[in-house]
Here is the input.
Amino acid sequence: MEGIEIIDFQPEGYKPLVDYESWRVAVLKFCDDLLIENVKTMQKHLYTDEVFVLVQGRCTLFLAGEGDKPGRITAVHMEPHKIYNIKKGTWHNHIMDTDGEVVIVENRDTCDDNSPILPLDKNQLVELANAAK
Here is the structure.
């Protein structure tokens, strides 16, 4: 059909679906990396906000401040169809249940080069697990 692009979501993980000029729409579905026991790092984006919208299932966002390294960890349990805009420079990560599905909107040039990832120490991993409850 002319004038429309229809794209199926993938079975699991992160996948960019639409890139247009300066923005990207992606979908994140459950994969083993999103289990609490597999979350060992925090990431921040240096030049862009990142928007999350929970479509189904459960997803918890973890935030850890804006410093040079992740700070105190807090959890935000997402609600379906609400927009969660993580501001640029904010350390974050997330977990998801097996039914989880999230739409992500971000700058098209968001990549590893402008999105540092740092490991969490033992105390932060305990803090992360406690925040998830």
Summary: The first strand starts at residue 13 and ends at 20. The first helix runs from residue 122 to 132.
